[in-house]
Specification:
InterPro entries: NAD(P)-bd_dom, NAD(P)-bd_dom_sf. This is NAD(P)H-binding protein. Residues 7-191 form the NAD(P)-binding domain. β4, α4 and β5 form a beta-alpha-beta unit. The protein has a single domain (2-152), classed as NAD(P)-binding Rossmann-like Domain (Rossmann fold, 3-Layer(aba) Sandwich). It has helices at 11-21, 35-43, 57-63, 82-103, 127-141, 177-188, 207-213, and strands at 2-6, 27-32, 47-50, 69-72, 107-111, 146-152, 154-156, 163-167, 174-176, 196-202, 205-206. The chain is built from 7 helices and 11 strands. Helix content is 39%, strand content 24%. α1 crosses α6 (177-188), α3 (57-63) packs across α4 and α4 (82-103) runs parallel beside α5 (127-141). The longest helix is centred in the middle third of the chain and has 22 residues, at 82-103. With 214 residues, it is of the alpha/beta class.
Length: 214
Amino acid sequence: MNVLIIGANGQIGQHLVRQMQQSAELNPIAMVRKEEQKAKYEQQGVQTALVDLEGSIDHIASAAQGADAIVFTAGSGGHTGADKTMLIDLDGAIKSMEAAKQAGIQRFVMVSAIGVHHREKWMASAPHYSAAKYYADMWLMRSGLDYTIIRPGGLTNEPGTGKVKAAADVERGSIPREDVASTILAALVDPSTMGKAFDLISGDTPIEQALKLV
């Protein structure tokens, strides 16, 4: 399965590319927005696409040609303002869904944020971020695509454990980015995750087993 990773230079994206390179089932296509990022991945033997999410749907759709699935793990980052959050985390996500349709790709995995499906749980310090994630998720659920929405808790750079807690609603907690990437990989090859959205934190259940329970 060829997978376009939108946000491949982000911290989860980098784990995702590495894990896919080690997989016998999945082949990464790294979508990045800077020439130096493209060069880095090409040196690693990774197929790349140079596309800016603030550009056109056509450009994203062109990058997706030959892909069987799309993973959206892009984000504006905490150092930007609300305007960039809306342009990347919301509009960029929606343009990516439209590009998937244009390219004839049905499978779409979204990396969202824990609790955003409940307005009362939106981050008081960054309600625009929660709103962007919420409405991007809602758009995806109504898109007709074969979606999986993964809503991880607080992200850490600790080594992954391979064990998580996944459910429609879980208490706030944290999870290594490496385990989020591993969960994305497992979801891509597990058809039972299609049409599902769930919170994700560290836990005691192996990832493949946890996905069967959501």
